[in-house]
Amino acid sequence: MGGSCFHGDRILGSAVVRELDITEFRGIRRLAKPLELSSFNVLIGRNNVGKTAVLEALYMLTMPLPHTIPPPYGRGVVDFIAEKHGGSAAREQGRKWSLLVYGYAGTAVLKYRLGVKAKTSIPTKIGSCAEAALGFKEVSIESIQVEISSERDLLRVLADGVELESSSYESFLASMGADLKRSPIALYVPNDSSAYAQISSYVMRDDVFSWIEKEGAHRRAVQDIIAPAVYDKFTEVTIRRNELCVRKEVSEEIGPLYIGVGSLGEGVKRVLLIYMLVEYLKPKLLLWDDLEVAAHPSLLESVLRWLASSRRQVVVSTHSIDVLHTITVVRPRDCRVLVLRKSPQDVMEYKALTLDDIEDILESGVDPRKIIEELEL
Amino acid sequence: MNVIEGELTPAAHAYALIGNGRRDIRILKAIAEKYDHSKTLRAPQPPISPGTGLTIVARSLAKLMDQVAVSRYLIIIDREHAKSLQEAEEKLREHGVNITSAEKLTEGSWLLKAKRDSRKAEVILL
Predict the structure, then answer these.
(1) Is the CB of residue B16 less than 8 Å away from at least one CB of chain A?
(2) Is the bond leading into A72 cis (omega within 30 degrees of zero)?
(3) Among A159, A161, A319, B10, which lies 20 to 30 A Cα-Cα from A261?
(4) Where in chain A do CATH 3.40.50.300 domains reside?
């Protein structure tokens, strides 16, 4: 087992979310059937079909209730997603989360069927009415439901039908080995350069980078992931003059150079930052939008090998045939490609293809991205 | 007729499987321009095809018959790859596609009725 596995975690090797159902969330009015998730999932489909919405819906599981801020983006999950979609302006108009609701009115409902055993403590009255005392009852949880109401700007979280408060939700997260401050259940990596700036700031925090150095993730990031895909001889990531840099060996005469991460190619920069962040936060569920952005197929292979070597649940979206081809080479365990399609009525439907299906399709001289409209679901 | 290589249309009426490469797609597009544009013919091949010839086309047809709700196919292949109808039938059969009837359209072109398991398709081979 590599360094990226969850040693000692309770959900080692399991999918956090087995099934996701979405109603009235962002551009999705509903799903034709709940989305079944494997350990490693690749979402493909046309632009605006709802790939990002699916990733965001899964990210909500980190902490849907406000006032708690998980790392690394410095704001609550719902605010983070809403602001990505212009929520700041909506907030000024008193419609804080309405942009997350289909048609900007009504209630979005997200239902998660968990793939692991979880539990929580819920407040309960003990004793008869007259002398009732408040105690806590431990209950097991199989599903979570999140409701976002645009009109009342209200968020509700239910576990198997019972409404949870923040403390009960945190207790549920803890039962899955997650910790909102240090190890959130899910990490979402959007295709958004401002998010990468936030990740960079987070990684450079003293406590975070000290851990990264101590655990050797600053070396593994370049030696295991980046080096096989570039010509440069990078040796490690370091901080110099308050800037995140990579150390580069050129020759004995020249000596090492320290290159600011911002000066690196976009693909290398993104992968470096995400690698260190993921190694530090150890999310149980990694959600990565447009995985292929700025990455040469060699870097994609390196990244996919790393993702496949960890035993966390992974959901990535892509438009790239290189990603589809590479997963047939890397062959992550329990991997499926979810081909997404949307009706004119905004009902999302999907077909799950196995790696063997994708390999057969590619070997048959057919581009899987080009048969989505005619695929039999 | 529209010949589409990507996905810039809704569902296609038929698929074009080209056994020879990009030049034939360009010719097919030019021919299709002369007809009305009410039907869409999609060429679902990847940007870089894994090969040419009858084998790859037969493999494509078999896979597509399994996966998609399209039952009309146009196969364009050089004579050097399929010297006779029998040769084409044999290659298709190797990939689990059986020809139940063949109607000669013109010299070197046929309308085939094909079956793979319970799936049926009409294939124009030229």
Answers:
(1) no
(2) yes
(3) A319
(4) 5-185+284-370
Q: What mean pLDDT is reported for chain A?
A: 89
Work out whether the CA dihedral A219, A220, A224, A225 comes out positive or negative.
negative
- Chain A residues close to B47, C-beta within 8 Å: 321, 367
Calpha distance A61→A144 (Å, rounded)? 8
Q: Which of A357, A371, A372 sits opposite B64 (nearest CB)?
A: A371
Instruction: Report helix angle A355-363 to B54-67, nearest 10.
Output: 140
Q: How confident is the model at residue A51 (pLDDT cuts 50, 70, 90)?
A: very high
ipTM above 0.90, yes or no: no
CATH code given to domain A5-185+284-370: 3.40.50.300
Length of chain A: 377
Query: Which amino acid, residue A294?
Result: A
DSSP-assigned beta bridge partners for residue A286: A187, A314
Calculate the CA dihedral of residues A125, A128, A131, A137 and round it to 10 degrees.
-20
pLDDT at residue A201 in the model: 93
Q: Give the pLDDT score at A7.
A: 35
- Write the single-letter amino acid at A275: Y
Judged by CB atoms closer than 8 Å, whether chains meet at A363 and B70 is answered as no
Quickly list H helices, chain A.
51-59, 77-84, 87-92, 166-175, 193-203, 206-215, 217-220, 266-281, 297-309, 321-330, 355-363
* Cα separations in angstroms, A346 against A26, A108, A148, A342, B12: 10, 14, 19, 6, 20
Is some CB atom of chain A closer than 8 A to the CB atom of B50?
Answer: yes
Model confidence pLDDT, tens digit, residues B15-63 = 999 887 778 888 888 888 888 777 888 888 887 766 778 888 999 999 9
Q: Say yes or no for a CB contact (<8 Å) between B10 and A373.
A: yes
* B34 and A CB contact within 8 Å: no
CB atoms within 10 A of CB B106: 7
